[in-house]
Amino acid sequence: MTLQKALLRCLADIRPFSRYVVGRELRPYQLEPARAILDSVLHCRGLTFAIVMARQAGKNELSAQVEAYLLVLYHRVAGATIVKAAPTFRPQAAISLRRLRDCLSAFPQSLQSIEDGHIVCFGRAQVHFLSAHPQAHVVGQTASLLLECDEAQDVDPSKWDKEFAPMAASTNATTVFYGTAWTSNTLLSHQVRALHRLEAADGIRRVFVADAEAVATQVPAYRDYVNAEIARLGRQHPMIRTQYFLEEIDQEAQMFPPARQETMRGTHPRQTRPIAPGQMVAFLLDVAGGDETILQRPTQLGLPDLGPVRRDSTALTIVAVEPPTGITALPTYRVLDRRRWTGVGQPTLYAALTDLAETWHPRWIVVDATGIGAGLSGFLTARYPRQVIPYAFNLATKSDLGWGFLAVVDSGRYKEYADDGAPDTAQFWREVQAAQAEVLPGPARRMRWGVADPAVHDDLLVSAALCARLDEVDWRPRVAVGE
Question: Per-residue pLDDT tens for 85-123?
């Protein structure tokens, strides 16, 4: 079929356009919202839609094909404009720009151009790709056909309402929010709830949802991919719940609810010295004061705001590391023993740690190298250069460690020893029960976590969480030379 004939067929529906022009036919769960969006644009209905799809399900392809279709239809109309916002220009909006150009690749280059690095022109019609970052300057644009918000769960609602929503006001342009689930306070969540109310009032469908199960019924390989992610992170991990099964999580919540605590509990006894020959052991060391400015006390907990939480104990968790088996390709950690020192100087700590190292012969020593911890980390590195893995805390790395530890726990790869009634064991579980997590807004997915209660602290918990750093070790099987 010639391009001209294909274009004639595509005037009635987007499906022939996808098949014959773009060369990538939309799946049924993409085609339904695409048709709804185009019906609203072509009949000037000015509706608003929310497209909530699992990660890698093809919402960006859907958006790009809708944009390409409208550009072709309106390429002779001066002022025909689409505005698309994303949380960042690079990489998010820039990726969408390239995807649109790919959808238009069948057309002559004489019809296409790029202006100012962010405007795709096709004939006289245009698509403006903009950043919705809080500091981005975007006022003055007008969307005559379509206003889109990509990854709407990561866009600041006040930014959208003040600077983007007015872009469709004078034109009654159709508005579409794309994204995945996150917390109930996101722009996407707000829109979904509002649109459901409108649906109930007039019966017009405005919210389209395709979770991992819906995608897997049409893409069998996708099921294998999601199952591998579940095996790696655990079904209850926030990333699995939100990005694949589209379940909202609390913005502020107990980090280790009872079900997660049960996952952490093991049945093996505490082990105060090595008993198994060749047992692979790691030391996880959280140094007193090394992370004292990371966790701010949340006033929502009903506690007085006394400033940054200060830790005053150095905590050591000793874990047995069981190499990866099965599809996870990641190790399992069994806690064998733990130690805690309060008000002890670094020379004394260093001596105690080297004595323990001579007893346990750890394969790795993950040590908090923040602030005053850098000195102890340096001494240990000089003594055990191949074993020490320094870990410096800041807002980003503390968040990464929290997410990583949840992945270890939720995938069943972290097991505590059976309760022995010891004070430090009870203290660990107090810290676990008191730990809170706050998900910060924005595409970085930062999580602030820890124990706000100054009477509890979180030294032992942070020490245990350092096992997540070992997930970054190269666990791929090594093949001997000649095999």
Answer: 999 999 999 999 999 999 999 999 999 999 999 999 999
What is the rounded CA–CA span in Å between residue 483 and residue 478?
A: 10
Q: Tokens 């000195």 — which residue? A: 375
Pairing of strands 174-179, 48-53: parallel
* Of residues 64, 460, 65, the one with CA closest to residue 284: 460
Tell me if 294 sits within 8 A of 450, measured CB to CB. yes
Give first-to-last CA distance, the chain, whole Å: 52
Beta bridge partners, 253, equal 437
pLDDT digits (tens, 9 = 90+) for 272-288: 999 888 889 999 999 98
What amino acid occupies position 209? V
Give the per-residue pLDDT at 337: 98
Q: pTM for the full model?
A: 0.84
230 contacts 240 by C-beta, under 8 angstroms: yes
Helix orientation angle between 373-383 and 346-360, rounded to the nearest 10 degrees: 40
482's enclosing H/E stretch is none
Burial class of 347 by CB neighbour count within 10 A (0 to 12, 13 to 18, 19+) = exposed
Q: Write down the pLDDT at residue 56.
A: 95
Distance of alpha carbon 61 from alpha carbon 29, whole angstroms = 12
Half-sphere exposure of 400 (CA within 13 A, CB side): 11
Which one-letter amino acid corresponds to residue 312?
D
- CB–CB of 48/191 below 8 Å? yes
Q: Are strands 364-368 and 281-286 parallel, antiparallel or unpaired?
A: parallel
Write the pLDDT tens digit of every residue in 19-47.
988 999 999 999 999 999 999 999 999 99
